[in-house]
Specification:
Blueprint lengths: L3 E3 L3 H12 L4 E3 L6 E5 L3 H11 L8 E3 L6 H4 L5 H10 L4 E6 L6 H4 L4 E5 L4 H10 L3 E2 L14 H8 L5 E3 L11 E4 L6 E4 L5 H8 L4 E2 L22 E5 L4 H13 L4 E5 L10 E3 L4 H15 L5 E5 L5 H13 L6
Bound molecules: threonylcarbamoyladenylate and magnesium ion.
Threonylcarbamoyladenylate binds next to strand 5, strand 6 and strand 10.
Length: about 325
């Protein structure tokens, strides 16, 4: 299959929208990461997303909308908390999980009775979704397990020849995936942390919001079980920022014939060692994280990452870093 590169002009948006309605796969930009879009009303199209990505079929997909009213077309019950979230926070880098309507097939939900819904903040994303005219399922547009793509070129690297088109928009500004907030149970629960943090949701709901931190905890979000975001090379993570410890670790790898790189807050402290800046602020760390991993895996065979920030958003970024490092903390 030839993967067409489409641009953000009227003619190409019409084409992208038609492709979606015809059951084809179109990757598109959002503010978090690029998504791999399919018509949510077409089970065949939805199933082909799993094939293109090599994604386990028991990991459900998020349904994307461009207009708030569309929620009522996919959710069976929009409770008071959901109404507050929709009115106060959406559009946002936030996904809400609600009881699903019958039009939402098992192919989307992997058999769950709930559906995950997101209205992206990105204007380009909502523009595409408006042209699609139907709700659009979209996982991140990477091969399963790989770091999510934050620009269209990375989508091309992973999925060229496997999907009909890529809508080539702006690079993603947030850089990590949306917060997943489960509102289908008794208490609100964050299944995946993101840029919309628990305190922001608590300020709207006026009740406490728990974040699922233990991936072994039994929750209705299969996605948290799988290996994720991993670069092709070995990776470890440090959260102390201890320069001497990091230097020793690096030197040990050099001595054993490896070609490591430090991905750290202050690369200038490491002299002649290979060191790259992970970011000056939490926003910058998040925005560049997956792209940094993809660049560094092409040049080095070992990534030593270090990140010490402890803000609420930093915890979400750390969640991705821990997974990228396959839980290897030093
Ligand atoms: O920022 C994002 O959310 C991006 C962009 C493209 O919108 N999408 C994304 O999709 O990250 P994906 O498929 O990589 O992650 C979807 C997450 C998974 O952890 C999945 O388990 C969870 O959402 N999920 C989907 N439906 C669910 C449901 N009904 N109940 C609980 N979790 C659900
Ligand atoms: Mg993903």
């Amino acid at each position: 299959m030839k993967t067409e590169l489409l641009q953000f002009n009227d003619a190409d948006l019409i084409t992208a929208g038609k492709y979606i309605r015809d059951g084809k796969l179109v990757a598109f930009p959002t503010e978090t990461v690029y998504g791999l879009g399919a018509n949510a009303y077409d089970s065949e199209a939805v199933r082909s997303t799993y094939t293109a990505k090599g994604r386990p079929s028991d990991n459900p997909l998020i349904v994307h909308i461009w207009h708030k009213e569309q929620i009522y077309g996919v959710a069976r019950e929009v409770n008071d908390d959901a109404v507050k979230i929709v009115n106060s926070l959406m559009p946002a880098s936030l996904t809400v999980v609600l009881p699903k309507k019958d039009v939402i097939s098992d192919a989307i939900t992997a058999g769950l009775d709930t559906v995950a819904i997101r209205m992206p903040k990105s204007v380009q994303a909502r523009e595409f979704l408006r042209y699609a005219e139907v709700p659009v399922t979209a996982p991140s547009a990477n091969l399963s397990g790989r770091p999510s793509p934050t620009n269209w070129q990375r989508v091309y690297d992973d999925l060229n020849g496997k999907i009909s088109a890529i809508l080539c928009g702006d690079p993603c500004q947030v850089g990590i995936e949306s917060t997943v907030l489960d509102l289908s149970g008794k208490d609100p629960l964050i299944l995946r942390p993101g840029v919309v943090t628990a305190d922001m949701i608590e300020a709207v709901l006026h009740k406490s919001v728990r974040v699922v931190t233990n991936p072994k905890e039994k929750v209705n979000s299969p996605g948290v079980r799988y290996k994720h975001y991993a670069p092709k090379v070995d990776m470890v993570l440090d959260v102390s920022g201890d320069m001497e410890k990091l230097s020793r670790y690096y030197d040990g790898l050099i001595a054993s014939g490896r070609n490591p790189v430090l991905l750290v807050e202050k690369p200038q402290l490491f002299g002649s060692r290979n060191a790259v800046c992970i970011g000056q602020t939490d926003d910058e760390v998040a925005r560049n994280l997956f792209e940094n991993l993809r660049i560094l895996e092409g040049k080095f065979d070992y990534i030593i990452a270090s990140y010490t920030s402890t803000t609420p958003f930093a915890k979400s970024v750390l969640n991705r870093l821990v997974r990228s490092a396959g839980n290897n903390l030093i």
